[in-house]
Amino acid sequence: MTEISFARQLARHVTADHKLTAEITDWMKLLLFDYYAITTGGAERDSAVAIRSAVSTAASQDRFFSASIHGTTLWATLDDAALVNGVTAHGLELDDTFEESSLHPAVVVFPAVLALADERGYSAADVLRAAAVGYDVMCSAGVLLGAAESYGRGFHPTGVAGVLGAAAAVSSLFRLDEDQTTHALSLAANLAAGSLEFLSDGSWTKRLNAGHAASGGLRAGKLAAADFTAPETSIEGRDGFLNQYGQGLIEGRRLNLVFGKSALDTSIKFYPCCRYMHGNIDLLCDIHSEYPNLDIDEIESIEVGVIKAGATLVAEPPARKLIVNTPVDAQFNMPFGAAVALATGQATVGQFDDAPAVAAKLKPWLEKVRCYTSERLEATFPASWQAEVSVRFKDGRVIERNEAAFRGAPQDRATREQLVDKAAVLLTPSAAQALDETVQAIELDAPLTGQVVVPQKDSI
């Protein structure tokens, strides 16, 4: 082979001697805090309860049940804990987002590395470094694949690129050499999975994709550590990852691997729904604040620009988006998000959990929403996600708003205070404050296990 395979390029990044800077450390701690908050906050959702019921658990840690299930007092096997925590973390749709490749790193990478930290006592520095490497690989592989291309084939980027990120993080913790790590990443490419068919009826398989990627990455790392082999061209080969889940290697795309950059470029969510909806919700909440007494009978239309890559998730087909039978239906529904934002000035977990009743009440608002694509939005995508909305009145008045970056994006960086406020709604203010103080006080040279006391859902 005359060129270096993508798996080996990624492996060289994973095995390089990366140093945690203060900036990367501080941001990884915030991402870890956000992960713990959303996982604990989602621990009693039906999908989380179901996935816990599907695995064997114990009330205390032992040699077999070695990893904790976050937000509970339970312990599970290494692989099962990664699976359960990934599913649970992804349930609220409040998890972080790497916009350029349209995926959610925390809910894949952290379940894998934290399970290993529980079982093997890795230092906080090793865990945060491995997690940052996992973000690098998952997000870079996602850019190489392309969100539009992956969605176009009916695949979920978090599910298919996520397993590579988890495998990279696990390989880093295991200190696998370059050849072993290449095999781990190639094995991960073989284990990738995750479809978008959940959109048809609002079921739970999108959440499963995150947990499957976390546990699959663990398995790939363990297999590679045992010298199990995989084809080095698993990513770019004729029957490899890029051709299976996308449109092959797109001209001009390459891996851009800089330690910690993907994590630093990851956005924080403030609404419990698909990230493609957030910019319009930002703008419509602002309009509600400026015009709190809007009357739907006076409104001709609520027009929202939707990025083409996300249209199949949140806007199409239009008739299907008027049917809201489950919270998942609402989480991927721009008309629903637009209606609650403009009518109420917010978009909360409670509204999405009670989506069928809320949608019925706001039916006249949903019916006024028109989603469209915009050349201006497409011109900056995928590097920059922007938003634009118009509220048109029957008397000819028009209210227009736009934003150059969704709130919580790197261009509008979420603060520690905002993350604590977000967690306070999911937990309690005191539990959020205690969790924040604990995560911020993590000592890098000490084992991570025991340093972070995660609140349990039944105690908040």
From TrEMBL:
SUPFAM superfamilies: 2-methylcitrate dehydratase PrpD. Residues 19-247 form the MmgE/PrpD N-terminal domain. It comes from the Bacteria. It holds the Pfam family MmgE_PrpD_N. InterPro entries: MmgE/PrpD_sf (IPR036148), MmgE/PrpD_sf_1 (IPR042183), MmgE/PrpD_sf_2 (IPR042188), MmgE_PrpD (IPR005656), MmgE_PrpD_C (IPR045337), MmgE_PrpD_N (IPR045336). Residues 271-443 form the MmgE/PrpD C-terminal domain. Belongs to the PrpD family. This is MmgE/PrpD family protein. It comes from Rhodococcus baikonurensis.
